[in-house]
Protein 1
Amino acid sequence: MLKSRNLIEPMDLSVEELDEIFDLAEEIIKKPSEYSNICAGNLLATLFFEPSTRTRISFEAAMLKLGGKVIGFSEPTSSSIAKGESIADTVRTVSCYSDIIVMRHPKEGAPRIGTMVSEVPIINAGDGGHQHPTQTLTDLLTIRSLKGGFSNLTVGLCGDLMFGRTVHSLMKALSRYENITFILISPQELMIPEYVRKEVLRKNGIKYEEVRRIEEVIDKLDILYMTRVQKERFFNEEDYVRLKDHYILDNEKMALAKEDMIVMHPLPRVNEIAVEVDNDPRAIYFKQAKYGMYVRMALIIKLLGLD
Amino acid sequence: MLVINSIEKGIVIDHITAGLGAKILNYLDIDTSEHTVAFIMNAPSKKYGRKDMIKINDVTDIDLSDLGLIDPKATVNVIENHKVVKKIRLEIPERVVDVIKCKNPRCVTSIERNAPHVFVLIDREEREYKCEYCDDIVSMKGDWQNEIMRKEWLRIKSRK
Ligand SMILES: [Zn+2]
């Protein structure tokens, strides 16, 4: 059993609870048929106050594969919100006839309101730029399954490290394990914010390095986590054009990397990973999406208390 | 020294750090109440050199524990029949509801009516509080005047 009834931020879960979820996810991967009916009779509601097709489909697929059913809305225009209903009232109503709620909202902390009134567990599927815990669980399960654990890893994080919440959450989650080294690869403008340096890195005594180009460090990495570098984040077009190639992964750069390095990406990608890299066995970002569904399956089972 | 008549029944907020009295008055929304209120600024104090002081007539049954957020050094004395019947030492509160208003425009409290504004103490030394929804951090040591929500109890009471 998990201590918390809800999942609002990744740190709601202890290292032990995470392991329980990942153990279950790996069990499901091995014997999917044993779990194909475990959630029969349960209804999952997806309340998406802001559209995110990818995340919603992943949750719906997870529930359907467990034999449960799904209801919900995918954007606020079609919901009662458009008529001015409060978040609290919407969640309270839906919790009367569903067994678990997945909620995405553009405002920070919105799922917390849900937990105050809901009769059933709430999973945060993203609240503005704030938290997206199931993305972090996805990343962690991927790492555990493909690298055998979380300790003694050198993890390169590349791209927009200033605004990228997935990167901050992943760093925070990984900082709980032994002997992690981060190599932070970003343009000057998009370096990690000072509070992450202070609260995550220095506070936990984590080794880290900040560099400008993938080529400089790719040979040292066990994991390369790529994120998008958005044009709008730069002060001017010139800088963007000058710098962007340093943050695009292609076969030439992959040739410098270790044989067993893995390339991760939260998807969707734009152009930061050249399509030619997709055929490299080290490119596991589509597999990562699959792990995302499995970890959501495990989480749903756990929160419903069906394990 | 300025002499203010002692009160028969009421509340005396004493040992307020000089300069914070006005903030407490504002928090209590006293200017809209009909109670007799005495506000003394920069009174000499044995303990702190200078202090502010607030006396409110005829009110005794109110919870002022949240005042520790503004000034943990202040004390609250409840007076009945000219005597101190209760002395409350204020403390830095661990959690406050509807006292600090979250100023993060991306926070859900900016759009959800009726959502309580909840802040939790994260650093006692710096008196830093974190919004329970968006994790926005405010320090009560700094200039936080606008973040304090006004209490309305005095106004409500004086209406009847
Ligand atoms: Zn807030």
Protein 2
Amino acid sequence: MKSLGILSAGLVFAAALGTVASGDDHVDPAVMKAVKARQAQMQLYAFNLGQLGAMAKGEVDYDAGAASAAAGNLAKLTSLNGRAVWLPGSDDATLGEDVTAALPAIWEEGSEIGDKAKALSMAAAEMESAAGDGLDALRGAIGDVGKSCGGCHEDYRRSDD
Amino acid sequence: MRRLALFVIGLAVIGLGVFWTLSAPERLPADALAGIEGDAEKGARVFYAAGCASCHAAPEAEGDEKLILAGGMRFPSPFGTFIAPNISPDETHGIGDWTAQELADAMIHGTSPEGAHYYPAFPYGSYGRLATHPEGLKEIAHLHAFLQTLPPSSAPNAAHEVGFPFNIRRGLGLWKLVFANEGWVSSVPGDDAQLERGRTLVEALGHCGECHTPRNAVGAPLNGQWLAGAANPSGEGRIPGIDEMNWSARDIAYYLETGFTPDFDSAGGHMAAVIENTSQLPEEDRAAIAAYLKAVSQP
């Protein structure tokens, strides 16, 4: 069962990779791959949170197994080593706003991006242990996950129309 | 020649007189808050609805530190950089010695206790709409009582980094004359309490238009394009429009609670700070904001 979970996560990953839009002719293909991979990782965060959020919002019935699976995926995704996808010089000022929304501040002196990523993996770990314990526990944990997503987007991702 | 010079000087004096009269700061009538008793508990809700901490907390404050309104946050604009003052209840460095009436003059007319004009970086253009709300002055009195319960800070105020002519506060009087206190932007049916609450939260307290409505060359909001989206004053990217929301009211309320969009992307930019406040509001307030945005979005 466990390997099936990992396999399906892999499939979703591949699907997400395939759907990222591109306006990227002028960008080094290796850099472009890194940008697409991190955007796909973000899409997977959103996809798995969507499973949990639909329950939190009351749009689908709470299901302990499904909630645990989604929260487990999220926790694993937040533990991926990000070195290769967050290449220095892959910010929006360098690559263009149509390619990435990552702000140069990520790579500047005094950047707290590492702390922000850690805050998310801690919140995701909390969610992993709470998700199977009923709807109230899930609702209690999702707020902190949202705060840690937003905490990083606040400083390091460009806002757009 | 001499007569001409005198004539010109005369005109200049009249001009100065007109300028001085037109640019005079406005205040509420002396008895405007007579008989109103502030309630700190109710003030907490006003505080989170109005987002005072988003601008007046220290720049790096997290969590409960956001309740120390020490000032110091910087607001770049085309006219220079404004720096938020200390509004903690410290009597020397903050506003601990202010009356509720003085706070009301600041929030509604942008007028200081000494009678100087504030810059509209302090969003009194939005808060000022409370003046015409039957409960508006009460809300400010409650807020005043709540602010008194917060921890004091002895951080001194920093001067704004604003060049000539924008450093002359008196000139702001003319700006205010032309642009401030325009009243409510949208009309709501008198018997719809939820929409009315939503309008108070969006147009006045939540000052949503300060970011989501575009501005003209002198920084005044273009209310004909109310909530239609705007340039980001920090220079990067854009602030999206919220005048054509196709999200459900439930989705909008959930976004204001958790930051999650219907696709479970997560709000960033300055909106993340707004959501820190709206997440503290009672559910019914988020629902009222959502109802208002849906009403505005109807073609």
